[in-house]
């Protein structure tokens, strides 16, 4: 089974979605998961648990084979 990483980018609301990348994010969280489905679930759960939204911020979840 391949490992899929959830890359959770926390970006300022003033940053365009296309410009929300690892190097422009306010915070970056990486979560190791077993599948793409698990990646999206882990990403959403992390955002909810860690209360990453609000205060002029938004999150973008990217799933990939490496962090």
Percent strand equals 35-45%
Strand order of the largest sheet: 2-1-3
How many beta strands in the DSSP annotation?
3
- Helical content (DSSP H or I, runs of 4+): 10-25%
Instruction: Give the class from helix and strand content and strand pairing.
Output: alpha+beta
Computed CA radius of gyration, to the nearest angstrom = 12 Å
Q: Stretches where pLDDT falls below 50 for ≥5 residues?
A: none
What does the main sheet amount to? 3 strands, antiparallel
**Helical stretch tally:** 1
Morphology call: globular
Q: What order do the SSEs take from the amino end to the carboxyl end, as H and E? A: EEHE
> What's the average pLDDT?
89
Count of discrete domains: 1
In whole angstroms, the N-to-C terminal distance is 17 Å
Describe this structure in words.
This protein has one domain. 21% of the residues lie in helices and 36% in strands. The chain contains 1 helix and 3 strands; from the N terminus they run ββαβ. The chain has a 3-stranded antiparallel sheet, covered by helices on one side. The protein starts with a strand and ends with a strand. The mean pLDDT is 89.
Describe the structure concisely for a colleague:
It contains 1 helix and 3 strands. The chain is an alpha+beta fold and 67 residues long.
